[in-house]
Write a structure and sequence with these properties.
Chains A, B: Keywords: Acyltransferase, Carbohydrate metabolism, Cytoplasm, Glucose metabolism, Organic radical, Transferase. 2 copies of one chain form a homodimer. Chain A has 760 residues and is an alpha/beta fold. In chain A, 43% of the residues lie in helices and 12% in strands. Chains A and B meet through helix 5, helix 6, helix 9 and helix 18 of A and helix 5, helix 6, helix 9 and helix 18 of B.
Chain lengths: 760, 760
Amino acid sequence: MASVTNNTENVNTTAWEGFKGETWRHEVNTRDFIQENYTEYRGNDQFLEPIAESTDKLWAKLQELFEVEHEQNGVYDMDSNIPSTVTSHGPGYLNKEEEKIVGLQTDVPLKQAFQPFGGIKMANNALQSNGYEVDEDMNKIFTDWSKTHNQGVFDAYTPEMRRARSNKIITGLPDAYGRGRIIGDYRRIALYGIDYLIEHKQDDLANTGNRTMTDDVIRLREEVTEQLRALNDLKTMAASYGFDISHPAETAQEAIQWLYFGYLGAIKSQNGAAMSFGRVSAFLDIYIQRDLDKGLISEAQAQELIDQLVLKLRMVKFARTPEYNELFSGFPIWATLSLAGMGIDGRSLVTKNDFRLLHTLTNMGPAPEPNMTVLYSSHLPEGFRTFAAKMAKESSSIQFENDDLLRENWGSDDVAIACCVSATVTGKDMQFFGARANLCKAVLYAINGGIDEKTKKQVGPKYRPITGDSIDYDDFIEKYKDMLAWLAELYVNTLNVIHYMHDKYSYEAAQLALMDTDLKRTFATGIAGISHAADSVMAIKYGNVQVIRDEDGLAVDYAPQNEFPTYGNDNKEADDMANWIVEYFITQIKRQHTYRDSAPTTSLLTITSNVVYGKATGNTPDGRRAGKPLAPGANPSYQDGKYLGEKNGLLASLNSTARLNYENAMDGISNTQTINPTGLGKDEDTRIGNLRNVLDGYFDKGAYHINVNVFSNDLLLDAQENPEKYPNLTIRVSGYAVKFRDLTREQQNDVISRTAHDRM
Amino acid sequence: MASVTNNTENVNTTAWEGFKGETWRHEVNTRDFIQENYTEYRGNDQFLEPIAESTDKLWAKLQELFEVEHEQNGVYDMDSNIPSTVTSHGPGYLNKEEEKIVGLQTDVPLKQAFQPFGGIKMANNALQSNGYEVDEDMNKIFTDWSKTHNQGVFDAYTPEMRRARSNKIITGLPDAYGRGRIIGDYRRIALYGIDYLIEHKQDDLANTGNRTMTDDVIRLREEVTEQLRALNDLKTMAASYGFDISHPAETAQEAIQWLYFGYLGAIKSQNGAAMSFGRVSAFLDIYIQRDLDKGLISEAQAQELIDQLVLKLRMVKFARTPEYNELFSGFPIWATLSLAGMGIDGRSLVTKNDFRLLHTLTNMGPAPEPNMTVLYSSHLPEGFRTFAAKMAKESSSIQFENDDLLRENWGSDDVAIACCVSATVTGKDMQFFGARANLCKAVLYAINGGIDEKTKKQVGPKYRPITGDSIDYDDFIEKYKDMLAWLAELYVNTLNVIHYMHDKYSYEAAQLALMDTDLKRTFATGIAGISHAADSVMAIKYGNVQVIRDEDGLAVDYAPQNEFPTYGNDNKEADDMANWIVEYFITQIKRQHTYRDSAPTTSLLTITSNVVYGKATGNTPDGRRAGKPLAPGANPSYQDGKYLGEKNGLLASLNSTARLNYENAMDGISNTQTINPTGLGKDEDTRIGNLRNVLDGYFDKGAYHINVNVFSNDLLLDAQENPEKYPNLTIRVSGYAVKFRDLTREQQNDVISRTAHDRM
């Protein structure tokens, strides 16, 4: 929504001293500010400084707290009777004297907040399962008087939705927890100060609706008023730490602090499925460079500020339930930090700050958070590509996304990644997160006429099953299409309920206050089990699959009689089968009515839930055994077996993944790979160079994403047996980085069982 | 929504023993049950029994409590920290041994509940203004964590809406208190028991929406689930009094008790603008007659049950603010009880119970509540018409509505009146109550180009004002039409916001649970100041109105130079002017988008707010002085003055009111009249007969409503000076009956200033 006030700069001009450009001064436009002011850096990592003494002390103290937390199964402490809001807690510190950047979620480091608005049952479950008592007053308040998102959703669900959910054909739905995935443009606070943002939101409110009060206009007007309330709350919260963020930041330290306060408001008020941090690197570099140029700070001090910001992001904690931890173990919160990327004007957006941010993995060692995400292109300066490859190799904590695809498909060079692979244009897009449907299980539903192979319940529609001893491909395909069409409709409508209720009972005012009022909303569905689905269809087409039935005639196992091509081995037909399934499914998704007319997308992403999803899925025609994990995300199957697995090496596998069509899965395609260091070459420089070349080639072929791990399985086996030796061993799993010791044993086994490529 | 379960009688058949008919057994249909089973009564009042000893004791005790309450300015006691819900309070009694019908709003008689869901500010204001302390915990809960209706509304209001509201061109909006006006079909509990109703609502839930989850389907599904929760809560509440209402009532006493529990659930969970009781007379008579026929009870016991039900309705109290009391003084709650009426089959619906219910005014004396409302027709049996006229004359506590118009326009003989004059088909319609727009003030806005004559603020659109010394009729009419069109649009959109938020934050689950899921909703706007608006336009047309201006040129007074016809004197042109204004306004209303596609209606009703509205309205072209009360409802002006007043007697006044077109004001047309007993004839019988004849003639002419008062102004003057002599003097004011001593002095003066007709 364009501003209709006719303001010239109404902000403290010393804050903007030395900044260039005009457009961003007259409207809220952080991208324009960045484009006008950032200094591209094409050099190497030689300028980087080691950890400051202050940061070292803080990090040492935090490590101690982490040990306590680890011994207490991931919970240092928990609140039970202060519903967390932007202003619910007084200021908290780790070590006030040493902190250059301040602000905690609660008043005590690592203490997990009580966040009942998404669902009181889940908040209580988190308390009880961690040995804390439920507060009866709070339980009464959020049961009898203040309804929660979770209750609203289940009030509106149909029996069919409950069945699909409990039988796990649709899984991981954000109906008992916050949907997350929304990234506030936290930079706005630093550049404009809260008062200017309030003025612009008031302007938006005045121009919301043409006077006719339809439901959508009323809803938006209420939301913008809630956003205004949240902006004032952010000021109050910052003031409790002694800062006045009503005006713009004047220094790099203030810019980082202001921006972090914005994020802090978000995580105080929401326990979302992913609370991502956004794209702040070039933005903050502008402030740092100005202070460096003025001689106000040294490079060492710049690194100190960045290290301390990152340290804060490493401290973010949310109360979680055992069920949640089983799906996504290791307590990820997806404080995804998007780095680098190219500008649409041809310059790269790489600044020294991208180096500084990755350098935190050296200064403080590898860590799961923030979720370091490099927006990669072979057009990025070589110095940075080399450094990124080096840090990925050394830390196994970095993911890469194809920045060329992002710019092409989102029309912006200010895209940030939410969670793992979800693109949103910063401050302009929000996502309705929708977890995923199990398309591998849908293969079995197509065969069994909608009866679940595990629970024997009629879950899908009562279509005619396949009854013979073998499966006719043409017959199957028609049945699979019918079942996918049913699943897409049910799935979208389930999500419609969820997002209606989330807006109603758990609206993210603090985050949306820092975004445009006139938002583009995506409706993010997701697909689980794509590789097994594709391989199963290939098996049915070419493998002469014989059906094994139980006493009731239900198909419960499958025996392919012939070899068949599988996805992940650079076989075009198998890879195209995966593409066809995705395209057919997203086409059915797009036919549906979506909440707030949001734009449907889908993802190939399971994060670590592939283990739980696999447990709920019977034997599949591709030869995968019942209960075994699905391959995560868009990964090719890595199961042992006669037919499955990446048999042709890393590059063939990457070629297959690169063949997947991003246009059909605009919410992202996740691929996780491990390569044995020896597979990359003999010495360090060769290995770094080869990894960089692999990334260049992979992304130039149009692949969307990769999690890079460089280690041998021997290391993991040793870490599994001797966890005390590897307290900080961090690896990339599907969707995030995690401390290996924090994975469940089942998930550790899954990771170990994956192919660690010994050859390219 | 028709039932799709295929149940035959699944209820205790002894409860239905002796009842006739089939349809009502297979679907929730209380009207059909009544039609099949009621016994019309065409006799007189000779069968009636005096007050029972038990009731006498209860009434005596209640009188004592009323005195305490009166001494404490209408507040016996107040809760401050128990948000009132259906199940929030344990059982309470007045005198348990004597109570045949039990159930209190809180645990103590007359104690006012704490009802924050409509708005915490209003709930706190009610506490503070009555000398109670605000509970800080409750304030925090309902400010920080649980949003209220009031907050939601003001979050979405536009500045224009706030201006229109604070300048009182739109007035009395239910944006800080409950909208009320919804009448649950409380009979359903008695006839079916809660379990059967739950089963049917579950059936409705299963058939809500065609799987596509649009916002309206999601909303309705959540609402029905809330209704199911409320039905279970009603069972819990009844059980606390020792009754199991899961099954149908088996006796008259149970039927009355079950039905009252339904109403009790409503008033425990809502502090609405009018909490009407509905149409229960013939329904309960069926149960009473069955028990009488079986010899289970005597007529004296039947009267005892009815008296005690009515006694309970006299005890209903809500926490109120001074601002509310100023608008509607005397603490009305509009427990409107609709009596008599004709059936569409030609039989009257009069039963002995209509006599019993009116007879409570004798047994316990006149009282404001329940709001006794006779659905009148000259086709009703003469015995009842005579008795109703007699009771009206003796109590001045009865209102009459035209049942012929109701049946014709609402297509049902099961219409009940909500509040004063608002028709709803029982269990099938609900109303979105919308207070009123001041069309008399709109005359002044048309003249002054949208500038308010009292506040001098630009409130309406900046249309060209009338600038000359006199007012050209044609010029004025165009300007008035423009202003009415603006007002209608703004008014409807304001109400759209209110009802969206009421559904969101203060949904009436306990009432709507006892109504059809597939409801017809009316969107009830209202008009204040119709007679002054019509007379002002007549003055402009015929009176050569000279304009007197203030120093800024704003028109502030008007001097008609000639006589002009006025509304209320049986002048067709003046009366038609009133009709034209209403028709033009409702036409503009009907052009608008209305919330949930509800059907727009309007009313001519001000209740006692005519005094406050008049205060906010400047001098008007008809000669009315600034600040003087508007004539209430559709009443002709009764102001002294050269031009105004009913100059041609009662019948001429009634003829004018009868000329108003109900089709354009389907939310009702209110008329309040007082006649000096001597004007009705010399002796009692003549007076009763004449009053009955007046009613017959008035309604046969198509008039909609009348409040009947029979007394002289001397009585009121004496009561004003010596209130202790008249503790129970009850009169009909516009919209309700009230104890005269509970009116503000200003309102007493207004009542006294009205024409008490000495001649027909």
